Amino acid sequence: MRLGRRTLIVGLIVAVALCSSLVLASAFVKTSRTQGRAEVKVGEEFKLGVGRSAALKGGGLEVEFVSVVEDSRCPRGAECIWEGNARISLRLKRPRESPAEIELNTNLEPQRSSCLGYEVRLIGLSPYPVANEALDKKRYVAALEVRKL
């Protein structure tokens, strides 16, 4: 009888663990989809992290922040000859059309680009570099605005 009780307790523990992991896994999938692709309004500023995408409400356009190509902005706490520039890569997608990649700059041109019937503008990029501190490129967030042409 003692072996049966132990087996029952172990079985219950395993069942609870499996149920818990399934609940956590389903919550993770829902959270990933929500965090990975936000919905934004045309003509309003929105923020997008590296590797994330946003869909325009009713617009049929998806904007993905692919990467930070370069960041040579003069770090806070440093003296520089010029303010520098950061350049990002975005991927634009519309249904039944080939995706388009554009690059936008913080201080040089182009800071905006027209593509697939929309104009995309880079408003800003954070965090700003700080002297003697390494910056993880995964932490970048772009402030963007998309307008219909």
Describe, in plain words, how this protein is organized in 3D.
- With 149 residues, the chain is α+β, with helices and mostly antiparallel strands.
- Helix content is 23%, strand content 38%.
- The chain contains one helix and nine strands; from the N terminus they run H-E-E-E-E-E-E-E-E-E.
- The protein has one helix at residues 2-36, and strands spanning 37-40, 46-49, 53-56, 62-71, 86-93, 100-105, 112-115, 118-126, 141-148.
- The strands form two sheets. It has a five-stranded mixed β-sheet. A four-stranded antiparallel β-sheet has the order 2-9-8-7, with no helix packed on it.
- 13% of the residues are buried.
- Residues 14-36 have low confidence and may be disordered.
Produce the secondary structure layout.
Layout: H1 2-36, E1 37-40, E2 46-49, E3 53-56, E4 62-71, E5 86-93, E6 100-105, E7 112-115, E8 118-126, E9 141-148
Parallel strand pairs: 1-3
Antiparallel strand pairs: 2-9, 3-4, 4-5, 5-6, 7-8, 8-9
Distance between the termini: 77 Å
**Mean pLDDT over all positions:** 82
Helical amount among residues, as a percent range?
A: 10-25%
Low-confidence stretches: 14-36
Strand content: 35-45%
Radius of gyration: 23 Å
What is the tally of beta strands?
9
Strand order of the largest sheet: 1-3-4-5-6
Number of helices: 1
How would you classify the helix and strand content by structural class?
alpha+beta
Q: Choose one word for the global shape.
A: elongated
User: What is the helix/strand order?
Assistant: HEEEEEEEEE
Q: How would a crystallographer describe the biggest sheet?
A: 5 strands, mixed
